[in-house]
Design brief:
CATH topology of one domain: Alpha-Beta Plaits
Strand order of the largest sheet: 1-2-4-3
Distance between the termini: 62 Å
Largest sheet: 4 strands, antiparallel
Strand content: 15-25%
Helix content: 40-55%
Number of helices: 3
Shape: elongated
Structural class: alpha+beta
Number of strands: 4
Oligomer: single chain
CATH architecture of one domain: 2-Layer Sandwich
Length: 123
């Protein structure tokens, strides 16, 4: 299954066949109401889409997507179609963030190791 995501800060639109299922339609309102910062949402069960307006200072689009995925209202990100425009953008952003975090950690560890080696040399 694939899905479509369009995101600008404060506004998230998701369209997927999962959102047409009765169990998702019954849980969707409760899931979104429980998230701090979600101001409003409108759901169209016939086409399987939801539009969510939120305060990005309180909750991120990734948090919203995670909670919907955890509740079974979204497919696994690995099953998303490569033709999906915004999803591939989110994947690229996530990959870039992970890469930067990994690089930062490796750099920090190598600096710590170098400083410790240098400190041992002065003893």
């Amino acid at each position: 299954m694939s899905y479509y995501i369009h995101h600008v800060p404060g506004r998230l639109r998701i369209k997927t066949a999962c959102l047409r299922r009765a169990e998702c339609q019954s849980r969707l309102g409760g899931i979104l109401a429980a998230l701090p910062g979600v101001d409003s949402h409108s759901h169209n069960g016939k086409i399987g889409s939801v539009l969510i307006h939120y305060d990005n200072a309180q909750v991120s689009a990734d948090d919203i997507l995670y909670h919907l995925y955890k509740a079974g209202c979204l497919d696994s990100p690995m099953s998303a179609s490569p033709a999906v425009s915004a999803t591939s953008g989110l994947v690229k952003q996530a990959g870039a963030l992970f890469g930067n975090a990994l690089f930062g950690t490796l750099l920090r560890k190598s600096v710590e190791t170098s400083v410790l080696s240098l400190a041992r040399g002065f003893r």
